[in-house]
């Protein structure tokens, strides 16, 4: 499909401020990320669907993102659209009527939010679309077009609130959901896998399976991310000493906290606290003077990420 610029399933570790020559849709299967669109920060969590339009400068606030896995597709619209548009056109081979394009583009252009909770349908459609694009059978293009149409329609339903989350959780999944709330409120507690499993009344192997399904992470990975997010919040919004933040977030020592924090974010806690107070003049310049990333640059970037 000539309209497709890039696609793949990878860990996103490179998201410098940029604009794309098309519409980008990303399903975050795993991770907790801090992304920004047109100067507005949005927290992107596991199970989120995220989109941007050609004129929207977007990227990450952190030079190094924590562990994550995303399903990504970037495709050309009818034009590059370098400036904001209330309506725009999709490629003809997607088969949308003029009325349908008006409906879809109006919803996407007017949305102030770019990150939403993905529905069960979207969680299935994005991997299926990327898998089809990576295949080589005779009807690959036709099936990919059908799946991309479905992704766009489902995204419109998610943005407008029309989509219904029909995910039916069984008993053990409901127990783990309750545990997730407990972990969020008590991430400083020294949880063990045994304690988590006992809290849910299930075996540790079952606990791991359900965690992977609901969060895309193992229990301990998820707990680690909660601690990181709590630490970031305290660094941004309070003047609490770093050593106190370490203990409040469940780390055994300030040194272990500092090492872990730098490994995840690429910055020390002190650097993050300074950085989080606002973008520097040089960083603001990067965000304000951004040109389109070329198709070739995008392909090279995705290739690097896919190989890592």
From TrEMBL:
<dbReference type="GO" id="GO:0003700">
    <property type="term" value="F:DNA-binding transcription factor activity"/>
</dbReference>
<dbReference type="InterPro" id="IPR020449">
    <property type="entry name" value="Tscrpt_reg_AraC-type_HTH"/>
</dbReference>
<dbReference type="GO" id="GO:0043565">
    <property type="term" value="F:sequence-specific DNA binding"/>
</dbReference>
<keyword id="KW-0805">Transcription regulation</keyword>
<dbReference type="InterPro" id="IPR009057">
    <property type="entry name" value="Homeodomain-like_sf"/>
</dbReference>
<feature type="domain" description="HTH araC/xylS-type">
    <location>
        <begin position="177"/>
        <end position="275"/>
    </location>
</feature>
<keyword id="KW-0804">Transcription</keyword>
<dbReference type="InterPro" id="IPR037923">
    <property type="entry name" value="HTH-like"/>
</dbReference>
<dbReference type="InterPro" id="IPR018062">
    <property type="entry name" value="HTH_AraC-typ_CS"/>
</dbReference>
<dbReference type="InterPro" id="IPR018060">
    <property type="entry name" value="HTH_AraC"/>
</dbReference>
<keyword id="KW-0238">DNA-binding</keyword>
<dbReference type="Pfam" id="PF12833">
    <property type="entry name" value="HTH_18"/>
</dbReference>
<dbReference type="InterPro" id="IPR014710">
    <property type="entry name" value="RmlC-like_jellyroll"/>
</dbReference>
<protein>
    <submittedName>
        <fullName>AraC family transcriptional regulator</fullName>
    </submittedName>
</protein>
